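Duplicate of #3305? Posting structure anyway:
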């Protein structure tokens, strides 16, 4: 039997249903066995002694500290991350098996492993091993998921047929092929660019930022370019004649194009997300600063600060709570607004004749005065004079009261012009605890860990801040203040893995919206113009949060109260753009992941609902435009 005959026999074997069933059962049993083995090994390893037993009056605080430290170290003995990694590998193996490529992938894996093993033994080019292995794994995952997506799009109907052609086109078109290759190379090379001298938490944040954010931006750019190209090029080259002369409706054509682009985005995002998660777990198992081995501090007792901050602030899903606003006397506040409005309106509109225009202008000025006065009252509430103290309340913390994770108090102190070479001593006192004096830099965000015991039975944490040293009663020279986002408490409410899955889902929702933007623009524009419009919408959506924040310092009137018409027009346009994409900008999935903040299901549902509504609107408009175009008219040439 020749080699070609043997290869054909092996191919027939891996295509057989019996072989697929047996291989799937073996892979499943191996995965379950791996999880059980890891669980037994982790249970046998035990945990180090972290804190002494609580036997004195401070027993409650000691117990809470011990529980927090044990919870941090328990990440080493948690099956969650190991099971997730094994689950990802199990899913990819099943896809490969049922595509009839199991023996092919096994042979390719052995062929790639042999030279890597040789490099490892000889030591030549050992630094390139992670990148080479990453390239092989990511490329193999992309091919398998792409084949799986093609199989999924083999369902009957014109919509799936068009979507399948879009997926096939994505691998043939040089435009998309370049981006796919670039994306795979970037994901494989990124781990090698991390600075091993940095603390582990900073390396993890850098990897999550550039891995997740960089992957999304590359996939988003590819999505916009490819969604514009797949429709515009078919019209330009008259390939669309072959489709629209068949019994294919306009909505089926556009829906198939959108579905194909969205599926391509899901494949690429799935490949990148699985790679990011698996390497993040690998990086998590590296020694942190102050550890002689992962999760083993140099002092043999307690937890290294770098590990503690990594597990509780970065690889977390924290909920952030702002202090309750200052309660206002509504009647007195309304009197103050009316008194100020009467004087201000007479100064600004003294020469304007009575009528509808004046009444509208008066209502606008009154609303602006009410907003500015409300902000001024709250700004004054967040300002503390030298030697004085202020009381703040954080409510809605009932679920964090019995948590095994610490709370984190985040603050930023401003004073004068915030000279960088000057520090202030500020005292913080939560509940009935002793005041803690901190020497803080001005204009810098800092974090203070807090025990959950400061939360009372009503789910409220009470805070007293003193502008000075509460022990020596020495005050700072100037008034300190906190910006609107300069005071917050956060607590853990979930796991990193679940939060990461929600972040990936939010990124895919964004890609689905961007795909429809590209398809819509290309229905009535040429490729360059469609790309220009699509990227303008993309950048406006991504920058909507910054745009709305910058408008707070954008003046539409001069100091004499006269309207600046050009600035007013700019403000109207910018406000409209910012408000149109507020939900898109507020999702902030990558920023939440890097900061360890939870992306809740309610936020995801709101974002998905709004973006779905915009997608349906664009889809309806695109179908209406497409129906009125003569796409398949024979010209006689």
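Output from current build:
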């Amino acid at each position: 039997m020749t080699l070609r005959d043997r290869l054909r026999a092996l191919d027939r074997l891996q295509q057989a249903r019996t072989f697929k069933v047996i291989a799937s059962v073996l892979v499943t049993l191996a995965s379950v066995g791996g999880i059980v083995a890891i669980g037994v090994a982790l249970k046998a390893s035990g945990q180090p002694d972290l804190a002494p037993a609580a036997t004195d009056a401070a027993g409650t605080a000691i117990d809470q500290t011990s529980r927090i430290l044990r919870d941090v170290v328990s990440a080493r003995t948690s099956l969650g991350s190991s099971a997730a990694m094994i689950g990802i590998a199990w899913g990819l193996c099943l896809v490969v098996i049922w595509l009839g490529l199991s023996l092919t992938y096994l042979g390719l894996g052995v062929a790639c492993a042999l030279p890597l093993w040789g490099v490892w033994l000889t030591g030549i080019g050992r630094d390139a091993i992670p990148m080479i292995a990453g390239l092989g794994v990511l490329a193999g995952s992309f091919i398998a998921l792409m084949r799986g997506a093609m199989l999924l799009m083999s369902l009957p109907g014109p919509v799936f047929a068009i979507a399948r052609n879009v997926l096939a086109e994505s691998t043939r078109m040089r435009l998309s092929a370049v981006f796919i290759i670039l994306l795979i190379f970037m994901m494989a090379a990124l781990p090698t660019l991390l600075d091993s001298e940095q603390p582990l938490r900073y390396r993890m944040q850098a990897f999550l930022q550039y891995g997740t954010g960089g992957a999304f931006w590359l996939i988003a750019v590819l999505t916009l370019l490819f969604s514009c190209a797949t429709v515009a090029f078919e019209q330009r080259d008259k390939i669309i004649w072959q489709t629209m002369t068949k019994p294919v409706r306009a909505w089926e054509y556009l829906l198939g194009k959108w579905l194909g682009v969205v599926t391509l985005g899901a494949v690429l995002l799935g490949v990148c997300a699985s790679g990011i998660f698996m390497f993040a777990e690998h990086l998590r198992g590296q020694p942190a600063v102050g550890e002689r081995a992962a999760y083993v501090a140099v002092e043999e007792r307690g937890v290294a600060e770098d590990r503690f901050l990594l597990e509780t602030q970065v690889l977390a899903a924290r909920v952030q709570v702002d202090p309750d606003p200052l309660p206002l006397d509504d009647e007195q506040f309304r009197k103050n607004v009316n008194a100020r409005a009467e004087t201000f309106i007479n100064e600004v509109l003294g020469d304007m004749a009575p009528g509808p225009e004046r009444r509208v202008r008066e209502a606008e000025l009154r609303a602006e005065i009410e907003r500015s006065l409300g902000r001024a009252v709250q700004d004054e509430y967040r300002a503390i004079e030298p030697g004085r103290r202020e009381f703040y309340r954080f409510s809605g913390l009932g679920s964090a009261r019995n948590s095994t994770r610490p709370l984190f108090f985040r603050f930023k102190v401003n004073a004068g012009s915030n000279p960088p070479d000057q520090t202030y001593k500020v005292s913080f006192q939560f509940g009935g605890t002793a005041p803690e004096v901190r020497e803080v830099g001005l204009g810098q965000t800092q974090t203070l860990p807090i025990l959950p015991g400061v939360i009372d039975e009503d789910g409220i944490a009470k805070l007293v801040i003193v502008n000075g040293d509460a022990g020596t009663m020495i005050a700072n020279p100037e008034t300190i203040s906190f910006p609107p986002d300069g005071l917050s408490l956060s607590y853990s409410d979930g796991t990193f893995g679940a939060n990461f899955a929600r972040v990936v889902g939010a990124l895919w929702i964004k890609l689905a919206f961007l795909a429809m933007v590209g398809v819509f623009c290309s229905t009535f524009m040429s490729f360059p113009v469609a790309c220009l419009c699509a990227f303008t919408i993309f950048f406006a959506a991504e920058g909507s949060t910054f745009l709305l924040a910058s408008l707070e310092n954008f003046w539409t009137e001069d100091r004499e109260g006269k309207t600046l018409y050009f600035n007013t027009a700019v403000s109207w346009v910018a406000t409209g753009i910012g408000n149109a994409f507020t939900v898109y900008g507020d999702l902030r999935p990558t920023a939440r992941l890097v900061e360890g903040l939870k992306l809740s299901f309610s936020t995801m549902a709101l974002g998905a609902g709004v973006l779905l509504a915009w997608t349906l609107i664009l889809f309806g408009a695109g179908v209406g435009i497409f129906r009125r175009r003569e796409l398949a008219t024979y010209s006689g040439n």
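Confirmed duplicate; merging threads. Confidence is low (pLDDT under 50) at residues 49-58. The two ends are 56 Å apart (CA to CA).
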